[in-house]
Specification:
single chain; mainly alpha; two-stranded antiparallel sheet; 71% helix; 3% strand
């Protein structure tokens, strides 16, 4: 299928849990025979697994590139002679372009060949990242511009990749594969700090830190084009009696706005984005300033300012990301046997537990470096419990033909109110609180501004608790969704309620 060729205007939809169980009881032989045939998605099991691994690799590169700048931020500040506010803009302009273009790619991803869209976007992102590494000292605005353009390529990928996984797997397998995919976020972020700081240190030039991911990105494009096969939308969730039809974009938006689980979980995820965006950019710099303030480190005068701090923080981010994502999925899976509200409750617990540890990490920075790293480790572990679960919530409360659009608008809202402004906000607040340019106030002002993260985490936990009130109903509506102009009514069927069209009952 070419980029210009729209997908089929109809696609089969969900298999219900109880129906699937009944099929196993009454038709085990037929199910065994079907398992030997090609998957309804049109992709073999081996290629499906390769697809997930390749998408995970690309997601890893996305986040490596995003946080390479944070790993060498003190060097960039020293090179260009900029303050905290302008430093925060580097992340903000990237997130803004990424965020505003996400709906465009969400619209395209629901209608056209997703593999081609991602390939073009990643090629553009790789070339722009490489170009940004040649920014001269007197043109800081060029670095801002190129970092903004990098968001174009990343938007083309992040809105689409999870929907491909959703079209390859269902239920428990889907959750497992999403876990693999979202491991790449904290691990890639940590590698961004590590690779950025260490490559810049070895080359004695921070520009080289930005020249690692472009080559790896072009390899990713080749893998996309020659290994990944476009799956059929919604085919693995087929119910033969129902077919999904593509609806207009405005209809999709109206339906999503009435999906309370989607809306509330998006606001909860916004708090996650605010906290992670702030810590991602400022934590290595904050740790470096704390070490200078306590006399453990000398002030930065010739570059390679925070290489060791970025290395340690990057390693912590990698480890806590793996632990957090894995523990979040496992706790949620066990809790599901007791309550259908497990997913939002685990997300809420993760945010609420992370808040006090992040607060203690920021406060203890002036007294004990070891205590600071311990509290950061615990805080980031609880914070990382959300990644895979939030993605899974979106996929099972939204119908397949609206998922890319839902992914796009979750990206817009979470970044618009979250990490698009939080790095810049932290920098501006830090500059406004700084009374002098002494080492004391460089540290103290950033410390006070970072305390905002703990309070935002508590608010996010509240949104996930609210999501738990609606999650069961919204999931049932998505699983039993039947597109029709008739007003649906509820009638009993096999001991449970199901929505059917009025016309089918009258006939």
């Amino acid at each position: 299928m070419s980029l210009g060729e729209p997908t089929s205007d109809s696609a089969p939809f969900f298999s219900d849990d109880s129906e699937a169980e009944g099929a196993e009881e009454h038709g085990g032989a037929a199910a065994g025979q079907r398992s030997q045939e090609e998957s309804p998605s049109g992709v073999s099991s081996v290629r499906a697994l390769l697809t997930v691994l390749i998408l995970c690799y690309i997601n890893l590169l996305n986040y490596m590139d995003r946080f390479t700048v944070a790993g060498v931020l003190p060097d960039i500040e020293q090179y260009f002679g900029i303050d905290d506010g302008k430093s925060g803009l580097l992340q903000t302009v990237f997130i803004c372009s990424y965020m505003f273009l996400a709906p465009v790619f969400g619209y395209l991803g629901d209608r056209y060949n997703r593999k081609i869209i991602m390939s073009v976007g990643i090629s553009f992102w790789s070339l722009v990242t490489l170009a940004s590494s040649y920014t001269p000292r007197e043109h800081f605005w060029v670095l801002l511009l190129t970092r903004g353009l990098v968001g174009v390529g990343e938007a083309s990928y992040s809105t689409i990749a999870p929907t491909i996984i959703a079209d390859l797997y269902v239920k428990g397998k889907r959750t497992n594969m999403l876990s693999i995919f979202y491991f790449a976020i904290p691990v890639g972020s940590g590698l961004g700090y590590i690779v950025g700081s260490q490559v810049g240190s070895l080359a004695n030039d921070w520009h080289w830190a930005l020249r690692v991911t472009p080559g790896l990105g072009l390899i990713a494009v080749l893998l996309l084009l020659f290994v990944i096969k476009e799956p059929k939308r919604g085919a693995v969730e087929a119910r033969p009696e129902h077919h999904l039809h593509q609806t207009s974009w405005l209809t999709d938006l109206l339906a999503l706005s009435k999906n309370y689980s989607f809306v509330l979980s998006t606001f909860g995820f916004t708090a996650v984005a605010f906290v992670t965006g702030s810590l991602a950019l400022w934590a290595p710099t904050f740790l470096f300033r704390a070490a200078v303030f306590t006399g453990e480190r000398d002030p930065c005068v010739e570059g390679n300012c925070a290489s060791s701090d970025s290395l340690i923080f990057g390693a912590i981010t990698c480890i806590t990301g793996v632990l957090g994502v894995a523990s979040g999925v496992q706790v949620s899976r066990k809790l599901r046997t007791r309550t259908p509200r497990a997913d939002p409750l685990v997300c809420a617990a993760g945010l609420l537990l992370s808040a006090p540890f992040l607060y203690l990490a920021i406060v203890f920075a002036q007294a004990s470096t070891i205590a600071t790293y311990v509290f950061i480790f615990l805080g980031e572990t609880f914070l990382s419990m959300n990644w895979a679960i939030v993605a899974d919530i979106l996929l099972y409360v939204v119908v397949p033909t609206r998922r890319s659009t839902a992914e796009a608008f979750q990206i817009v809202i979470s970044h618009l109110l979250g990490d698009a402004g939080s790095p810049y906000l932290i920098g501006v607040v830090s500059d406004s609180l700084r009374k002098t340019d002494s080492f004391l106030w460089q540290f103290r002002s950033l410390q006070l501004s970072l305390l905002l993260c703990s309070f935002v985490a508590v608010i996010g936990g509240g949104f996930f608790l609210a999501t738990a009130l609606f999650i069961e109903g919204d999931r049932n509506r998505a699983e039993n969704y039947v597109p029709t102009d008739d007003e649906p009514i509820v009638v009993p069927r096999s001991g449970r309620t199901t929505r059917v069209p009025v016309s089918s009952v009258l006939i």
